[in-house]
Amino acid sequence: MITKHLFAATITLLLLSNIAHAAGDPKVKSAMAKSDCFTCHSVNAQVVGPAYKEVAKRYHGTMAPASTIATLAEKVIKGGNGNWNKETGGSPMTAHANLSKVQATDMVKWVLAQ
After folding, report:
1. Number of domains present in the structure of the chain
2. What is the CATH number of the domain that holds 32?
């Protein structure tokens, strides 16, 4: 029984450290700055899209399950509309088809760690 709990705790810590690594990685923030992310978003306040802190809050921040991270990364790549209409007045997020799945996933992890 203790072994199962220890294993689960180890996996959780590895996942959280992976998100924390992306959040502290200057390459991720640099890639976001080179993209148009900060044109519509900021960390603390809504611009066109929601503030990254609000996104992190809605999706449980660093505790977000892998499936949520994958869904959000797909939204970054394909664009989207509807999840933040109340806050944005219906402004859609543009697609970022030039990003790889790995890049989008790292960006999502960075956002969720805010």
Report:
1. 1
2. 1.10.760.10
pLDDT digits (tens, 9 = 90+) for 84-99: 999 889 999 999 999 9
Query: For the chain, how far is it from start to end, CA to CA, in angstroms?
Result: 35
One-letter amino acid for residue 64 of the chain: A
From the list 83, 79, 76, the residue with the least C-alpha distance to 102 is 76
| pLDDT for the residue 11 | 44
Contact 95, 40 (CB under 8 A): no
Q: Which residue has the higher pLDDT, 17 or 68?
A: 68
- Answer yes or no: are the C-beta atoms of 107 and 33 closer than 8 Å: no
pLDDT tens-place string over residues 44-66: 999 999 999 999 999 999 899 99
- Output the six-digit token pair for 69: 């991270």
- Its sign, for the CA torsion 90, 23, 69, 57, is negative
For residue 85, give its domain range. Answer: 2-112
